[in-house]
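User: quick one, sequence for these C-alpha coordinates?
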Protein backbone atom coordinates (compact mmCIF):
# COMPACT_ATOMS: atom_id res chain seq x y z
CA UNK A 1 0.00 0.00 0.00
CA UNK A 2 2.85 2.41 0.76
CA UNK A 3 4.35 1.86 -2.71
CA UNK A 4 1.00 2.49 -4.45
CA UNK A 5 0.49 5.63 -2.41
CA UNK A 6 3.97 6.90 -3.22
CA UNK A 7 3.41 6.05 -6.86
CA UNK A 8 0.09 7.89 -6.81
CA UNK A 9 1.72 10.95 -5.18
CA UNK A 10 4.55 10.83 -7.72
CA UNK A 11 2.09 10.69 -10.61
CA UNK A 12 0.11 13.53 -9.06
CA UNK A 13 3.26 15.62 -8.67
CA UNK A 14 4.20 14.85 -12.29
CA UNK A 15 0.76 15.89 -13.49
CA UNK A 16 1.00 19.13 -11.52
CA UNK A 17 4.42 19.83 -12.99
CA UNK A 18 3.13 19.13 -16.51
CA UNK A 19 0.16 21.43 -15.88
CA UNK A 20 2.47 24.18 -14.57
CA UNK A 21 4.78 23.72 -17.55
CA UNK A 22 1.86 23.96 -19.97
CA UNK A 23 0.58 27.08 -18.23
CA UNK A 24 4.05 28.62 -18.45
CA UNK A 25 4.25 27.67 -22.16
CA UNK A 26 0.86 29.30 -22.83
CA UNK A 27 1.89 32.43 -20.89
CA UNK A 28 5.15 32.68 -22.85
CA UNK A 29 3.27 32.19 -26.13
CA UNK A 30 0.78 34.93 -25.22
CA UNK A 31 3.62 37.24 -24.17
CA UNK A 32 5.43 36.62 -27.46
CA UNK A 33 2.23 37.32 -29.43
CA UNK A 34 1.78 40.54 -27.46
CA UNK A 35 5.37 41.63 -28.17
CA UNK A 36 5.04 40.82 -31.87
CA UNK A 37 1.78 42.75 -32.10
CA UNK A 38 3.37 45.71 -30.28
CA UNK A 39 6.35 45.61 -32.69
CA UNK A 40 4.02 45.56 -35.72
CA UNK A 41 1.98 48.44 -34.25
CA UNK A 42 5.15 50.49 -33.62
CA UNK A 43 6.36 49.81 -37.17
CA UNK A 44 3.01 50.86 -38.64
CA UNK A 45 2.99 53.99 -36.48
CA UNK A 46 6.53 54.89 -37.61
CA UNK A 47 5.61 54.32 -41.28
CA UNK A 48 2.51 56.48 -40.91
CA UNK A 49 4.52 59.25 -39.20
CA UNK A 50 7.18 59.14 -41.94
CA UNK A 51 4.51 59.21 -44.63
CA UNK A 52 2.82 62.22 -43.00
CA UNK A 53 6.13 64.07 -42.72
CA UNK A 54 7.05 63.32 -46.34
CA UNK A 55 3.59 64.36 -47.50
CA UNK A 56 3.80 67.59 -45.51
CA UNK A 57 7.27 68.37 -46.88
CA UNK A 58 6.15 67.63 -50.44
CA UNK A 59 3.09 69.84 -49.99
CA UNK A 60 5.19 72.70 -48.62
CA UNK A 61 7.68 72.37 -51.49
CA UNK A 62 4.85 72.36 -54.03
CA UNK A 63 3.26 75.42 -52.40
CA UNK A 64 6.63 77.22 -52.45
CA UNK A 65 7.05 76.44 -56.18
CA UNK A 66 3.51 77.61 -56.91
CA UNK A 67 4.09 80.80 -54.89
CA UNK A 68 7.31 81.50 -56.82
CA UNK A 69 5.55 80.92 -60.14
CA UNK A 70 2.71 83.23 -59.14
CA UNK A 71 5.17 85.95 -58.14
CA UNK A 72 7.00 85.62 -61.46
CA UNK A 73 3.72 85.72 -63.40
CA UNK A 74 2.61 88.77 -61.37
CA UNK A 75 5.88 90.56 -62.15
CA UNK A 76 5.55 89.80 -65.87
CA UNK A 77 1.92 90.91 -65.82
CA UNK A 78 2.82 94.19 -64.09
CA UNK A 79 5.52 94.87 -66.71
CA UNK A 80 3.06 94.16 -69.53
CA UNK A 81 0.47 96.41 -67.91
CA UNK A 82 3.00 99.22 -67.52
CA UNK A 83 4.03 98.93 -71.18
CA UNK A 84 0.40 98.82 -72.29
CA UNK A 85 -0.31 101.90 -70.16
CA UNK A 86 2.45 103.86 -71.92
CA UNK A 87 1.26 102.81 -75.37
CA UNK A 88 -2.35 103.65 -74.47
CA UNK A 89 -1.34 107.09 -73.17
CA UNK A 90 0.51 107.84 -76.42
CA UNK A 91 -2.38 106.68 -78.58
CA UNK A 92 -4.85 108.63 -76.44
CA UNK A 93 -2.78 111.83 -76.75
CA UNK A 94 -2.61 111.44 -80.54
CA UNK A 95 -6.31 110.74 -80.79
CA UNK A 96 -7.17 113.76 -78.61
CA UNK A 97 -5.04 116.06 -80.75
CA UNK A 98 -6.71 114.83 -83.94
CA UNK A 99 -10.16 115.19 -82.37
CA UNK A 100 -9.35 118.74 -81.18
CA UNK A 101 -8.33 119.79 -84.73
CA UNK A 102 -11.45 118.20 -86.22
CA UNK A 103 -13.66 119.85 -83.60
CA UNK A 104 -12.13 123.26 -84.40
CA UNK A 105 -12.87 122.84 -88.13
CA UNK A 106 -16.35 121.58 -87.39
CA UNK A 107 -17.00 124.56 -85.07
CA UNK A 108 -16.05 127.03 -87.77
CA UNK A 109 -18.22 125.28 -90.38
CA UNK A 110 -21.08 125.06 -87.89
CA UNK A 111 -20.84 128.76 -87.08
CA UNK A 112 -21.18 129.63 -90.79
CA UNK A 113 -24.12 127.27 -91.18
CA UNK A 114 -25.81 128.70 -88.11
CA UNK A 115 -25.43 132.24 -89.33
CA UNK A 116 -27.03 131.30 -92.66
CA UNK A 117 -29.79 129.30 -90.99
CA UNK A 118 -30.62 132.02 -88.50
CA UNK A 119 -31.98 134.37 -91.13
CA UNK A 120 -34.12 131.69 -92.73
CA UNK A 121 -35.29 130.53 -89.35
CA UNK A 122 -36.46 134.01 -88.38
CA UNK A 123 -38.83 134.05 -91.37
CA UNK A 124 -39.93 130.48 -90.73
CA UNK A 125 -40.58 131.18 -87.02
CA UNK A 126 -43.02 133.98 -87.80
CA UNK A 127 -44.93 131.72 -90.18
CA UNK A 128 -44.85 128.87 -87.71
CA UNK A 129 -46.14 131.04 -84.89
CA UNK A 130 -49.25 131.89 -86.84
CA UNK A 131 -49.74 128.26 -87.80
CA UNK A 132 -49.15 127.18 -84.19
CA UNK A 133 -51.75 129.61 -82.89
CA UNK A 134 -54.28 128.19 -85.31
CA UNK A 135 -53.32 124.65 -84.37
CA UNK A 136 -53.53 125.45 -80.63
CA UNK A 137 -57.06 126.73 -81.02
CA UNK A 138 -58.09 123.64 -82.99
CA UNK A 139 -56.30 121.39 -80.50
CA UNK A 140 -58.05 123.11 -77.58
CA UNK A 141 -61.39 122.33 -79.13
CA UNK A 142 -60.39 118.69 -79.66
CA UNK A 143 -59.08 118.47 -76.07
CA UNK A 144 -62.40 119.71 -74.70
CA UNK A 145 -64.29 117.16 -76.75
CA UNK A 146 -61.88 114.39 -75.66
CA UNK A 147 -62.20 115.45 -72.01
CA UNK A 148 -65.98 115.15 -72.13
CA UNK A 149 -65.73 111.76 -73.85
CA UNK A 150 -63.12 110.65 -71.33
CA UNK A 151 -65.37 111.53 -68.37
CA UNK A 152 -68.19 109.53 -69.92
CA UNK A 153 -65.82 106.60 -70.59
CA UNK A 154 -64.43 106.71 -67.02
CA UNK A 155 -67.94 106.56 -65.57
CA UNK A 156 -68.65 103.50 -67.70
CA UNK A 157 -65.35 101.88 -66.62
CA UNK A 158 -66.15 102.61 -62.96
CA UNK A 159 -69.51 100.90 -63.25
CA UNK A 160 -67.96 97.90 -65.06
CA UNK A 161 -65.24 97.62 -62.44
CA UNK A 162 -67.77 97.60 -59.61
CA UNK A 163 -69.82 94.90 -61.36
CA UNK A 164 -66.66 92.86 -62.03
CA UNK A 165 -65.47 93.29 -58.42
CA UNK A 166 -68.79 91.95 -57.13
CA UNK A 167 -68.56 88.92 -59.47
CA UNK A 168 -64.93 88.30 -58.47
CA UNK A 169 -65.84 88.51 -54.76
CA UNK A 170 -68.60 85.95 -55.27
CA UNK A 171 -66.24 83.64 -57.22
CA UNK A 172 -63.60 84.04 -54.51
CA UNK A 173 -66.10 83.14 -51.78
CA UNK A 174 -67.15 80.04 -53.72
CA UNK A 175 -63.50 79.09 -54.29
CA UNK A 176 -62.69 79.53 -50.58
CA UNK A 177 -65.63 77.29 -49.62
CA UNK A 178 -64.53 74.56 -52.05
CA UNK A 179 -60.89 74.91 -50.95
CA UNK A 180 -61.90 74.59 -47.28
CA UNK A 181 -63.88 71.44 -48.08
CA UNK A 182 -60.95 69.94 -50.06
CA UNK A 183 -58.46 70.73 -47.29
CA UNK A 184 -60.74 69.21 -44.63
CA UNK A 185 -61.14 66.06 -46.76
CA UNK A 186 -57.36 65.84 -47.27
CA UNK A 187 -56.76 66.23 -43.51
CA UNK A 188 -59.26 63.45 -42.80
CA UNK A 189 -57.48 61.18 -45.29
CA UNK A 190 -54.14 62.01 -43.66
CA UNK A 191 -55.54 61.16 -40.20
CA UNK A 192 -56.79 57.78 -41.46
CA UNK A 193 -53.45 57.07 -43.15
CA UNK A 194 -51.53 58.03 -40.01
CA UNK A 195 -53.72 55.72 -37.91
CA UNK A 196 -53.07 52.83 -40.33
CA UNK A 197 -49.33 53.48 -40.28
CA UNK A 198 -49.35 53.62 -36.46
CA UNK A 199 -51.15 50.25 -36.32
CA UNK A 200 -48.66 48.73 -38.81
CA UNK A 201 -45.68 50.07 -36.82
CA UNK A 202 -47.18 48.72 -33.57
CA UNK A 203 -47.63 45.29 -35.19
CA UNK A 204 -44.02 45.30 -36.40
CA UNK A 205 -42.75 46.30 -32.94
CA UNK A 206 -44.72 43.50 -31.26
CA UNK A 207 -43.39 40.97 -33.79
CA UNK A 208 -39.80 42.19 -33.23
CA UNK A 209 -40.24 41.92 -29.44
CA UNK A 210 -41.60 38.38 -29.80
CA UNK A 211 -38.68 37.33 -32.03
CA UNK A 212 -36.20 38.85 -29.58
CA UNK A 213 -37.84 37.01 -26.66
CA UNK A 214 -37.63 33.72 -28.60
CA UNK A 215 -33.95 34.37 -29.39
CA UNK A 216 -33.20 35.14 -25.72
CA UNK A 217 -34.97 31.97 -24.62
CA UNK A 218 -32.94 29.93 -27.14
CA UNK A 219 -29.70 31.50 -25.93
CA UNK A 220 -30.54 30.79 -22.28
CA UNK A 221 -31.38 27.19 -23.12
CA UNK A 222 -28.06 26.76 -24.96
CA UNK A 223 -26.25 28.35 -22.03
CA UNK A 224 -27.96 25.93 -19.63
CA UNK A 225 -26.99 22.98 -21.85
CA UNK A 226 -23.40 24.27 -21.93
CA UNK A 227 -23.29 24.51 -18.14
CA UNK A 228 -24.67 20.98 -17.84
CA UNK A 229 -22.05 19.68 -20.29
CA UNK A 230 -19.32 21.54 -18.43
CA UNK A 231 -20.46 20.08 -15.08
CA UNK A 232 -20.63 16.58 -16.57
CA UNK A 233 -17.13 16.91 -18.05
CA UNK A 234 -15.84 18.07 -14.66
CA UNK A 235 -17.51 15.12 -12.93
CA UNK A 236 -16.04 12.71 -15.50
CA UNK A 237 -12.60 14.22 -14.95
CA UNK A 238 -12.90 13.86 -11.18
CA UNK A 239 -14.11 10.31 -11.60
CA UNK A 240 -11.09 9.54 -13.83
CA UNK A 241 -8.70 11.03 -11.25
CA UNK A 242 -10.30 10.03 -7.92
CA UNK A 243 -12.51 7.12 -8.86
CA UNK A 244 -16.24 6.71 -8.31
CA UNK A 245 -15.90 6.07 -4.56
CA UNK A 246 -13.39 8.89 -3.83
CA UNK A 247 -15.34 11.88 -5.31
CA UNK A 248 -15.35 14.72 -2.74
CA UNK A 249 -18.65 15.62 -1.12
CA UNK A 250 -18.46 19.21 -2.44
CA UNK A 251 -19.26 18.05 -5.97
CA UNK A 252 -22.45 16.29 -4.77
CA UNK A 253 -23.67 19.46 -3.02
CA UNK A 254 -24.04 21.37 -6.31
CA UNK A 255 -27.73 21.37 -7.42
CA UNK A 256 -28.29 20.01 -10.94
CA UNK A 257 -31.54 21.83 -11.70
CA UNK A 258 -30.31 25.38 -11.01
CA UNK A 259 -29.52 26.21 -14.68
CA UNK A 260 -32.94 24.95 -15.79
CA UNK A 261 -34.65 27.11 -13.16
CA UNK A 262 -32.63 30.18 -14.21
CA UNK A 263 -33.33 29.52 -17.89
CA UNK A 264 -37.06 29.11 -17.20
CA UNK A 265 -37.20 32.37 -15.23
CA UNK A 266 -35.24 34.27 -17.91
CA UNK A 267 -37.40 32.77 -20.68
CA UNK A 268 -40.62 33.77 -18.88
CA UNK A 269 -39.20 37.29 -18.39
CA UNK A 270 -38.27 37.46 -22.09
CA UNK A 271 -41.79 36.29 -23.16
CA UNK A 272 -43.54 39.12 -21.27
CA UNK A 273 -43.97 42.18 -23.62
CA UNK A 274 -43.50 44.68 -20.77
CA UNK A 275 -40.02 43.38 -19.96
CA UNK A 276 -38.71 43.82 -23.51
CA UNK A 277 -36.94 47.22 -23.74
CA UNK A 278 -37.10 49.44 -26.77
CA UNK A 279 -34.67 48.47 -29.51
CA UNK A 280 -31.63 50.73 -29.75
CA UNK A 281 -29.31 51.03 -32.73
CA UNK A 282 -26.43 48.64 -32.17
CA UNK A 283 -22.86 49.86 -32.73
CA UNK A 284 -21.06 48.52 -35.80
CA UNK A 285 -19.44 45.13 -35.11
CA UNK A 286 -15.69 45.01 -34.82
CA UNK A 287 -15.14 41.31 -35.41
CA UNK A 288 -17.03 38.72 -37.50
CA UNK A 289 -20.77 39.09 -37.13
CA UNK A 290 -22.61 36.10 -35.62
CA UNK A 291 -26.30 35.37 -35.91
CA UNK A 292 -28.24 35.91 -32.63
CA UNK A 293 -29.98 32.53 -33.02
CA UNK A 294 -26.89 30.48 -33.83
CA UNK A 295 -24.78 29.18 -30.89
CA UNK A 296 -21.43 30.87 -30.50
CA UNK A 297 -18.28 28.71 -30.64
CA UNK A 298 -17.25 27.37 -27.26
CA UNK A 299 -13.65 27.96 -26.34
CA UNK A 300 -12.79 25.28 -23.75
CA UNK A 301 -9.30 24.47 -22.57
CA UNK A 302 -8.00 21.15 -23.85
CA UNK A 303 -7.63 18.92 -20.83
CA UNK A 304 -4.80 16.38 -20.64
CA UNK A 305 -5.82 12.81 -21.09
CA UNK A 306 -5.14 10.72 -18.03
CA UNK A 307 -4.58 7.00 -18.40
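Assistant:
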Amino acid sequence: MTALKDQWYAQRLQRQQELAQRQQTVAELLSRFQQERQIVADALRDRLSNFCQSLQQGTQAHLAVVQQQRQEMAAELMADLHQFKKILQQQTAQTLSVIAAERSLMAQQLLQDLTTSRASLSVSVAELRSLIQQGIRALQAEVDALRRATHIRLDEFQQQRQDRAAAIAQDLANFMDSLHADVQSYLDDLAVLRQKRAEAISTLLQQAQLERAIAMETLFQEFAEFRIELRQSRLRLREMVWGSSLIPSQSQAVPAKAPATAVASLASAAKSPAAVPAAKPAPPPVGPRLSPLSPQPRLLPKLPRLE
